[in-house]
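Reviewers of the previous submission asked for a worked example of the structure-prediction workflow described in the proposal, so we include one complete record here. The input consisted solely of the amino acid sequence. No template or homolog information was supplied to the procedure at any stage.
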Amino acid sequence: MKTIEIDDDLYAFIAGQTKHIGESASQILRRLLMADDIEDTSTSAEPVETVSEEAAVPAPVEAKKATAKPTRAKRETVAAEPASPATTVDVDAVPANADDEALLKQVNPDALKQFDKRVDQFLFILQQAYVLQPAEFAQVETIKGKNRKYFATSKEELLATGSSTNPKAIPDSGYWVVTNNNTAKKLAMLSQVLQILGYSDKVVASVTETFSAQ
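From that input alone, the workflow returned the following structure tokens.
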């Protein structure tokens, strides 16, 4: 396995191309750059749960953000994790009223800077997605790993699917989300939530880049 250095904007772009939770940077790049030559094997890998980004020792690094000069962005590593099964999105069920402009107005660098912790920024973005589409937000419960759920309407429901899920409430929504995962997986979760809610690829990439850059 080789290690490469990438800039912050490229890191955010790669994360924004995630099609399902747990897809590694290597699998994303393979799909984007070698789609015609090599079949994507992401759905055949055996899923492995990630560990807490606050307390865990980083996993082997697949791709690393450049450190040539200090920036405000936190330096994160993208671990080459086996992929969890992808959630199938019913195209006919995707909402048609997703307001791209409204979401971008709420989720911006200044809004995220009010939070010191990455997990609080993550919860804030999910809260804004709920506020804009409260009825459609129930579809996020379809986002699941092999043996655990990532969203539920109670803390107990998430605790029942794993011993280290660290559920936290999405403010003012009535929903809970698993937070015991690294930043790369949080980016993947945000991407999938926004896709399910019907936001454009441009908005998904913009939101994930904003989150990644903080």
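The helical segments are 8-16, 25-33, 100-106, 109-113, 118-132, 155-159, 183-196, 201-213. We consider this example representative of the routine output the project will generate in years two and three.
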